[in-house]
Amino acid sequence: MKKRVFSGIQPTGNIHIGNYLGAMRHWVASQDKFDNIFCIVDLHAITIPQEAGNLRVKTREVAGLLFAVGIDPGKSTVFVQSQVEAHAELAWILNCFTPMGWMQRMTQFKEKSKDQKGQVSVGLFDYPALMAADILLYDTDYVPVGEDQKQHVELTRDIAQRFNSIYGETFRLPEPVMPDIGARIMGLDDPTIKMSKSEERQGHAVNLLDPPDDIRTKIMRATTDSLREIRFDLKRPGIYNLLVIYELFTGRNRADIEARFEGKGYVDLKRELAEVVVEGLGPLQSRYKELMRDPAHIDSLLTDGAARVRPTAERVLAAVKDKVGLG
Ligand code: AMP
Ligand code: TRP
Predict the structure, then answer these.
(1) How many CB atoms are located within 10 Å of the residue 236 CB?
(2) Both ends of the chain: CA-CA distance in Å?
(3) Strand (E) positions, the chain?
(4) 212-289: same fold as 4-178+295-324?
(5) Of all protein residues, whose CA lies closest to atom 2 belonging to ligand 1?
(6) Which of 194, 264, 321, 323 is an active site residue?
(7) The predicted structure's pLDDT at residue 264
(8) What's the CATH number for 4-178+295-324?
(9) pTM above 0.85, yes or no
(10) Which CATH class is domain 212-289?
């Protein structure tokens, strides 16, 4: 039996090379080793205001990108959260087993609610209970997430343990798995912060669907420092970040890369990096365009994905309801 991997991605903002290098690429590479489920979490997206038409467009776009980077619907499952009702239903039940104090400790809520200026929804506060439901519905072994989500996976374990201790063994306890340090891609305009989907500044991120000239402009304008030498030096975050992106796109080792740029300037590095990224994203962009010619096909892959996971989700939910005395 393969171990089950579950991960979620929000259909908001633009998917960027940080998402690709830090997450999607690894998902593709692990398809044979694990039983992967990827959920496009539209119910999480509405914890902050979304325009309906745009949410639908973004949901399909994320799906298209997942298939374009190489997620094979024959091996892995991709589905949309709101199409499997058990997520919302289990989230409600888990709410009733989650002490307020646990939820109040979540640091991401504190940060995200600051950006919302007075219009913070209860859903945003409760977001981690829905995430716990996502994970626990599928007897998940591993949850690949970024550092920022680790606390939510730990909360998921706590909720599962609490439920299990009251009703007996019901949920499998998931483990968070972090990508390696090299895969924390930083903002091009500010290499001291993580490249993020929610930053809207032009020049912050290279998005997977950016046209070649935008990629070139963004990389040429990336913030560096006033030194000269091109080395993997963590103390120089701008150059370090560009070198890491180069390393991950080319697969070359660090010594070779430093030798290659010996005596050259930042402009040379940026020029070459821009071409490496343009070429690296090219095949994915063509596959994406190809797929998008037939949106109905993408929708049908998503419907198939939901149909494939629904029985598992419903089985787990039924066991929970039975234990709690519902229905
Ligand atoms: P998010 O953009 O927060 O929805 O994250 C989707 C996935 O991409 C998660 O697994 C994150 O850990 C990963 N990810 C997001 N931003 C970065 C980044 N700057 N560098 C590496 N991985 C990232
Ligand atoms: N909260 C995650 C994020 O913003 C997305 C997510 C929702 C998720 N449900 C999940 C991630 C379940 C892993 C497992 O990135």
Answers:
(1) 17
(2) 32
(3) 4-9, 35-40, 77-80, 142-144, 175-177
(4) no
(5) 197
(6) 194
(7) 95
(8) 3.40.50.620
(9) yes
(10) mainly alpha
